[in-house]
Amino acid sequence: MAAIVLKSLEEIELIRESALIVSKTLGVLASEIKPGVTTLALDRIAETHIRDLGAVPGFLGLYDFPNTLCMSPNAQVVHGIPNETPLEEGDIISIDCGALKNGFYGDHAYTFAVGTIDPKIEKLLQVTKASLYEGIKSFEEGKRLGDLGHAIQKYCEKEGYGVVRELVGHGLGKEMHEGPEVPNYGRRGTGKKFLNGMVLAIEPMINMGTHRIKQLKDGWTILTADGKASAHFEHNVALIEGKPELLSTFQYIYEALGISSSEEVPFRKEPLVI
Ligand code: MG
Ligand code: MG
User: 202 CA distance to ligand 1 centroid (A)?
Assistant: First the structure.
């Protein structure tokens, strides 16, 4: 993995712009996700929206990925390829989206329910998203990568869930994947120290059952080894004056779905205007 690159406040604002383009795109998709829609149709909507906002899709062509969105339903963890299979009532769909503008990337992800889902799977979604904020809370001056990973791991394993080991978060900037690697597991007090100017994509990938995964023959799709559901939530976060500052937001999704939430408030210096 590439080196760790610390960013200036100006560069952080450019990453925020790209991250918010992804946030807006996920908000548009939130209104479109329903039984019968295909992941390929959602992919086209996302690509058009990103280009309309003056950016280019961050994943399209990256390592030869064929689409704008990684679309990973149900037991797929990440890196699923959009296709013509319609979503069904009770499915979940993890959508990971990237955008590139002004030379900087945004990269974040959300797992959506399609219609009404099993309460046990709803809980997996809630716990995975809450674990993301547990991780973000640990991204502060004086702490280390192992503290962040430990916070996410502890929060999810107490529910009996599996924390994927092979896939991790990362630094974000002029490259989609910069250093450091950001595992969702770890030991307190170990790993690299957090420094002001770091920008991380923090992204727990949490399985209902075993943490083990396998890959489809398409060379991309990662799914759970036991076929149970998996969830993925990702935010982009900068370390400024010793504190985590959220660059991406789920508020566009919540606005589309009629949800009210104050979960992001502690991680933003100025209130977000959407
Ligand atoms: Mg992502
Ligand atoms: Mg990422």
Answer: 9
Average pLDDT, the chain: 97
The boundaries of the domain holding residue 258 are 9-267
- Classify residue 197 as exposed, middle or buried by CB count within 10 Å of its CB (0-12, 13-18, 19+): middle
Residue 24, in any domain of the structure: yes
139 CA to centre of ligand 1 in angstroms: 18
- The CATH number that applies at residue 70 is 3.90.230.10
Q: What is the pLDDT of residue 268?
A: 96
Residue 1 pLDDT > 90: no
Residue 274 counted as domain residue: no
> Is residue 233 one of the residues assigned to a domain?
yes
Give the confidence band of 273 by pLDDT, cuts at 50, 70, 90: confident
How far, in Å, from the CA of 230 to the mean position of ligand 1? 15
Give 247 Cα–ligand 1 centroid separation in angstroms. 14
Angstrom distance (rounded) from CA 272 to CA 274: 6
Q: Measure 169 CA to ligand 2 centroid, in angstroms.
A: 6
Question: How many Cα neighbours within 13 Å face the side chain of 243?
Answer: 7
What is the three-class DSSP state of 233? coil
What are the tens digits of pLDDT across the range 197-214?
A: 999 999 999 999 999 999
For residue 184, the CA-to-ligand 1 centroid distance in Å is 14
Number of structural domains the chain divides into: 1
Q: How far is the CA of 57 from the centre of ligand 2 (A)?
A: 14
How far apart, in whole angstroms, are the C-alpha atoms of residue 35 and residue 89?
Answer: 5
For residue 2, what pLDDT is reported? 78
Instruction: Calculate mean pLDDT across residues 124-142.
Output: 97
- 18 — phi, psi (to 5°)? -70, -40
Does 136 map to a domain?
A: yes
